[in-house]
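Project channel, design review

CF: Before we commit to the Penicillium atrosanguineum constructs, I'd like one complete example in the thread so the newer folks can see what an input/output pair looks like. Taking Thioesterase domain-containing protein.
RD: sounds good, go ahead.
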Amino acid sequence: MSLSQTMRLWRPTTSLAKTFSPGGSIAYLHQQGPSRSAVVHEQAFPQGQTQVPVEALRSQARAQAPGSTHESKLDTLISQIPLVQTLRDSHKSYKESRPHLAIPPAIRQHHFVGGSLAGPGKLSIAPYTWTSSKKSETGNSRTSKVVSVFHIGRDLCGHPGFVHGGLLSVLFDEVFARCVSAAFPSGLGMTANLNVDFRKPALPDRVYVLRAETVKVEGRKAWVEGRMSYLPLAVDGSTIVQDEKLLREDGEGVVMVSEAKALFIEPKFADSMVSIYKS
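CF: and here is what came back for Thioesterase domain-containing protein:
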Protein backbone atom coordinates (compact mmCIF):
# COMPACT_ATOMS: atom_id res chain seq x y z
CA MET A 1 0.00 0.00 0.00
CA SER A 2 1.39 3.40 -0.96
CA LEU A 3 1.79 6.35 1.39
CA SER A 4 -0.95 8.29 -0.40
CA GLN A 5 -3.35 5.34 0.00
CA THR A 6 -2.52 5.10 3.69
CA MET A 7 -3.20 8.80 4.22
CA ARG A 8 -6.57 8.52 2.46
CA LEU A 9 -7.61 5.75 4.84
CA TRP A 10 -6.83 7.84 7.92
CA ARG A 11 -9.54 10.19 9.11
CA PRO A 12 -9.68 12.23 12.36
CA THR A 13 -12.41 10.79 14.58
CA THR A 14 -12.75 13.65 17.06
CA SER A 15 -13.71 17.27 16.57
CA LEU A 16 -11.69 20.28 17.67
CA ALA A 17 -14.25 21.02 20.37
CA LYS A 18 -13.57 17.63 21.96
CA THR A 19 -9.80 17.72 21.76
CA PHE A 20 -9.16 21.36 22.70
CA SER A 21 -7.38 21.97 25.98
CA PRO A 22 -6.30 25.28 27.61
CA GLY A 23 -2.72 24.43 26.71
CA GLY A 24 -3.59 23.84 23.05
CA SER A 25 -3.05 26.06 20.06
CA ILE A 26 -5.12 29.12 20.95
CA ALA A 27 -3.32 31.03 18.21
CA TYR A 28 -4.84 28.59 15.72
CA LEU A 29 -8.28 29.22 17.15
CA HIS A 30 -7.77 32.96 16.75
CA GLN A 31 -7.33 32.43 13.03
CA GLN A 32 -10.64 30.60 12.80
CA GLY A 33 -12.67 33.69 13.76
CA PRO A 34 -15.70 34.13 16.03
CA SER A 35 -17.06 30.63 15.39
CA ARG A 36 -14.32 29.19 17.62
CA SER A 37 -14.92 31.60 20.50
CA ALA A 38 -17.42 29.32 22.22
CA VAL A 39 -14.89 26.48 22.20
CA VAL A 40 -12.28 28.56 24.02
CA HIS A 41 -14.66 30.00 26.58
CA GLU A 42 -16.45 26.72 27.29
CA GLN A 43 -13.19 24.96 28.03
CA ALA A 44 -11.63 27.82 29.97
CA PHE A 45 -14.67 28.76 32.02
CA PRO A 46 -16.89 25.76 32.75
CA GLN A 47 -20.59 26.61 32.94
CA GLY A 48 -19.76 30.20 32.00
CA GLN A 49 -18.53 31.04 35.50
CA THR A 50 -16.07 33.91 35.03
CA GLN A 51 -16.60 35.86 38.25
CA VAL A 52 -16.42 34.89 41.90
CA PRO A 53 -17.63 37.04 44.83
CA VAL A 54 -14.86 38.78 46.76
CA GLU A 55 -15.62 36.94 50.02
CA ALA A 56 -15.43 33.63 48.19
CA LEU A 57 -12.06 34.62 46.73
CA ARG A 58 -10.73 35.47 50.18
CA SER A 59 -11.88 32.09 51.51
CA GLN A 60 -10.36 30.39 48.47
CA ALA A 61 -7.04 32.14 49.06
CA ARG A 62 -6.97 31.00 52.69
CA ALA A 63 -7.89 27.45 51.72
CA GLN A 64 -5.16 27.26 49.09
CA ALA A 65 -2.44 27.90 51.65
CA PRO A 66 -3.47 26.24 54.93
CA GLY A 67 -1.14 27.11 57.77
CA SER A 68 0.71 29.71 55.73
CA THR A 69 1.67 32.13 58.49
CA HIS A 70 3.49 34.43 56.10
CA GLU A 71 0.47 34.85 53.83
CA SER A 72 -1.81 35.40 56.80
CA LYS A 73 0.48 38.12 58.12
CA LEU A 74 0.56 39.78 54.71
CA ASP A 75 -3.23 39.80 54.51
CA THR A 76 -3.42 41.28 57.99
CA LEU A 77 -0.80 43.89 57.17
CA ILE A 78 -2.56 44.93 53.98
CA SER A 79 -5.86 45.27 55.81
CA GLN A 80 -4.20 47.85 58.11
CA ILE A 81 -3.12 50.13 55.26
CA PRO A 82 -5.21 53.34 55.41
CA LEU A 83 -5.53 53.39 51.61
CA VAL A 84 -6.98 49.86 51.64
CA GLN A 85 -9.40 50.74 54.42
CA THR A 86 -10.55 53.81 52.48
CA LEU A 87 -11.04 51.80 49.29
CA ARG A 88 -13.05 49.18 51.12
CA ASP A 89 -15.21 51.85 52.72
CA SER A 90 -15.89 53.36 49.29
CA HIS A 91 -17.18 50.06 47.88
CA LYS A 92 -19.81 51.94 45.86
CA SER A 93 -17.06 53.69 43.89
CA TYR A 94 -14.37 51.00 43.85
CA LYS A 95 -14.96 47.30 43.28
CA GLU A 96 -12.56 45.00 45.11
CA SER A 97 -11.34 41.83 43.44
CA ARG A 98 -8.43 39.42 43.26
CA PRO A 99 -8.33 38.81 39.50
CA HIS A 100 -5.81 35.99 39.48
CA LEU A 101 -7.87 33.87 41.87
CA ALA A 102 -10.81 34.22 39.50
CA ILE A 103 -8.85 32.61 36.66
CA PRO A 104 -9.75 28.90 36.41
CA PRO A 105 -6.89 26.76 37.78
CA ALA A 106 -6.34 25.08 34.38
CA ILE A 107 -5.61 28.50 32.89
CA ARG A 108 -3.94 30.06 35.94
CA GLN A 109 -1.15 27.50 36.10
CA HIS A 110 0.03 28.72 32.69
CA HIS A 111 -0.54 32.41 33.45
CA PHE A 112 2.73 34.33 33.83
CA VAL A 113 1.73 36.53 36.78
CA GLY A 114 -1.00 34.40 38.35
CA GLY A 115 0.99 31.18 38.00
CA SER A 116 4.70 31.35 37.18
CA LEU A 117 5.45 34.42 39.31
CA ALA A 118 3.15 33.49 42.19
CA GLY A 119 4.27 31.79 45.39
CA PRO A 120 6.50 32.14 48.46
CA GLY A 121 9.44 34.45 47.85
CA LYS A 122 7.84 35.79 44.66
CA LEU A 123 4.43 37.46 44.43
CA SER A 124 3.66 36.06 47.84
CA ILE A 125 -0.11 36.53 47.72
CA ALA A 126 -2.60 37.13 44.93
CA PRO A 127 -2.67 40.91 44.39
CA TYR A 128 -5.64 42.89 45.68
CA THR A 129 -7.27 45.13 43.09
CA TRP A 130 -9.79 47.96 43.31
CA THR A 131 -11.40 49.20 40.10
CA SER A 132 -13.50 52.29 39.44
CA SER A 133 -15.16 52.72 36.06
CA LYS A 134 -17.34 55.47 34.62
CA LYS A 135 -18.67 56.61 31.28
CA SER A 136 -16.35 58.92 29.36
CA GLU A 137 -17.38 62.57 29.11
CA THR A 138 -16.68 62.45 25.38
CA GLY A 139 -18.26 59.53 23.56
CA ASN A 140 -19.74 56.20 24.60
CA SER A 141 -16.55 54.59 25.91
CA ARG A 142 -15.67 54.08 29.55
CA THR A 143 -12.60 55.14 31.46
CA SER A 144 -11.34 53.58 34.65
CA LYS A 145 -8.93 53.75 37.54
CA VAL A 146 -7.25 50.81 39.24
CA VAL A 147 -5.37 50.51 42.51
CA SER A 148 -3.44 47.28 43.02
CA VAL A 149 -1.73 46.26 46.27
CA PHE A 150 0.70 43.34 46.35
CA HIS A 151 3.86 42.01 48.00
CA ILE A 152 7.12 41.27 46.20
CA GLY A 153 9.34 38.68 47.88
CA ARG A 154 13.08 38.12 47.81
CA ASP A 155 13.31 35.68 44.90
CA LEU A 156 12.55 38.12 42.07
CA CYS A 157 15.72 40.19 42.19
CA GLY A 158 18.07 41.28 39.42
CA HIS A 159 21.02 42.60 41.36
CA PRO A 160 21.10 41.05 44.85
CA GLY A 161 18.85 43.08 47.12
CA PHE A 162 17.01 44.86 44.31
CA VAL A 163 13.85 43.76 42.50
CA HIS A 164 14.38 43.06 38.79
CA GLY A 165 13.23 45.99 36.68
CA GLY A 166 11.66 43.63 34.18
CA LEU A 167 9.25 42.46 36.88
CA LEU A 168 8.07 46.02 37.42
CA SER A 169 7.36 46.30 33.69
CA VAL A 170 5.39 43.05 33.78
CA LEU A 171 3.30 44.28 36.71
CA PHE A 172 2.55 47.58 34.97
CA ASP A 173 1.46 45.66 31.89
CA GLU A 174 -0.74 43.36 33.97
CA VAL A 175 -2.53 46.12 35.89
CA PHE A 176 -2.81 48.37 32.82
CA ALA A 177 -4.57 45.57 30.92
CA ARG A 178 -7.02 45.31 33.78
CA CYS A 179 -7.51 49.08 33.77
CA VAL A 180 -8.26 49.46 30.05
CA SER A 181 -10.64 46.49 29.96
CA ALA A 182 -13.55 48.86 30.68
CA ALA A 183 -12.67 50.94 27.62
CA PHE A 184 -13.45 48.22 25.06
CA PRO A 185 -16.74 46.46 24.28
CA SER A 186 -15.02 43.08 24.42
CA GLY A 187 -13.26 43.93 27.69
CA LEU A 188 -9.96 42.91 26.08
CA GLY A 189 -6.95 44.95 25.09
CA MET A 190 -3.44 44.03 23.97
CA THR A 191 -0.28 46.02 24.61
CA ALA A 192 0.89 48.03 21.60
CA ASN A 193 3.46 50.10 23.46
CA LEU A 194 4.72 50.27 27.05
CA ASN A 195 7.21 52.83 28.38
CA VAL A 196 8.55 52.51 31.93
CA ASP A 197 10.69 55.10 33.70
CA PHE A 198 12.59 53.69 36.67
CA ARG A 199 12.94 56.38 39.35
CA LYS A 200 14.38 54.57 42.37
CA PRO A 201 15.59 51.02 43.09
CA ALA A 202 12.78 48.69 44.12
CA LEU A 203 13.43 46.67 47.28
CA PRO A 204 12.22 43.10 47.89
CA ASP A 205 10.03 42.01 50.81
CA ARG A 206 7.90 45.15 50.59
CA VAL A 207 4.22 45.90 50.02
CA TYR A 208 3.69 47.82 46.79
CA VAL A 209 0.90 50.09 45.58
CA LEU A 210 0.35 50.46 41.84
CA ARG A 211 -2.08 53.12 40.60
CA ALA A 212 -3.31 53.16 37.00
CA GLU A 213 -5.72 55.37 35.07
CA THR A 214 -7.09 55.30 31.54
CA VAL A 215 -6.43 58.82 30.28
CA LYS A 216 -7.80 58.68 26.72
CA VAL A 217 -9.90 56.38 24.55
CA GLU A 218 -10.28 56.58 20.77
CA GLY A 219 -12.15 53.72 19.16
CA ARG A 220 -10.07 50.57 19.54
CA LYS A 221 -7.21 52.47 21.19
CA ALA A 222 -6.79 53.34 24.87
CA TRP A 223 -3.97 55.14 26.67
CA VAL A 224 -3.18 54.43 30.30
CA GLU A 225 -0.71 55.85 32.82
CA GLY A 226 0.42 54.75 36.25
CA ARG A 227 2.98 54.80 39.04
CA MET A 228 4.30 52.25 41.53
CA SER A 229 5.50 52.83 45.11
CA TYR A 230 6.46 50.70 48.08
CA LEU A 231 5.78 51.17 51.77
CA PRO A 232 8.83 51.41 54.06
CA LEU A 233 8.00 48.25 55.95
CA ALA A 234 9.36 44.74 55.65
CA VAL A 235 7.22 41.86 56.81
CA ASP A 236 8.48 40.60 60.17
CA GLY A 237 7.13 38.56 63.04
CA SER A 238 4.45 41.11 63.91
CA THR A 239 1.14 41.59 62.13
CA ILE A 240 0.26 44.78 63.98
CA VAL A 241 2.02 47.98 62.97
CA GLN A 242 2.21 50.48 65.79
CA ASP A 243 3.29 53.43 63.68
CA GLU A 244 0.50 54.16 61.21
CA LYS A 245 2.78 56.57 59.30
CA LEU A 246 4.66 53.55 57.95
CA LEU A 247 1.48 52.40 56.22
CA ARG A 248 0.40 55.69 54.70
CA GLU A 249 0.95 56.05 50.96
CA ASP A 250 1.92 59.70 51.41
CA GLY A 251 4.01 59.07 54.52
CA GLU A 252 7.72 59.57 55.03
CA GLY A 253 9.80 56.73 53.68
CA VAL A 254 7.38 55.75 50.92
CA VAL A 255 9.37 55.38 47.70
CA MET A 256 7.97 55.87 44.20
CA VAL A 257 10.07 53.43 42.17
CA SER A 258 8.66 53.80 38.66
CA GLU A 259 6.15 55.43 36.34
CA ALA A 260 4.76 54.09 33.09
CA LYS A 261 2.60 54.90 30.07
CA ALA A 262 1.08 52.48 27.60
CA LEU A 263 -1.10 52.19 24.53
CA PHE A 264 -3.53 49.27 24.32
CA ILE A 265 -5.51 48.18 21.28
CA GLU A 266 -8.62 46.03 21.19
CA PRO A 267 -7.70 43.20 18.77
CA LYS A 268 -9.98 42.40 15.86
CA PHE A 269 -9.94 38.76 16.98
CA ALA A 270 -11.02 39.66 20.55
CA ASP A 271 -14.09 37.45 20.20
CA SER A 272 -11.87 34.36 20.07
CA MET A 273 -9.77 35.31 23.12
CA VAL A 274 -10.33 34.05 26.63
CA SER A 275 -11.45 37.02 28.74
CA ILE A 276 -9.61 36.97 32.06
CA TYR A 277 -9.61 40.72 32.80
CA LYS A 278 -13.19 41.74 32.17
CA SER A 279 -14.95 42.86 35.34
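RD: helpful, thanks. The longest helix spans residues 165-180.
CF: Strands lie at 95-97, 128-135, 142-152, 190-198, 206-218, 221-234, 255-265.
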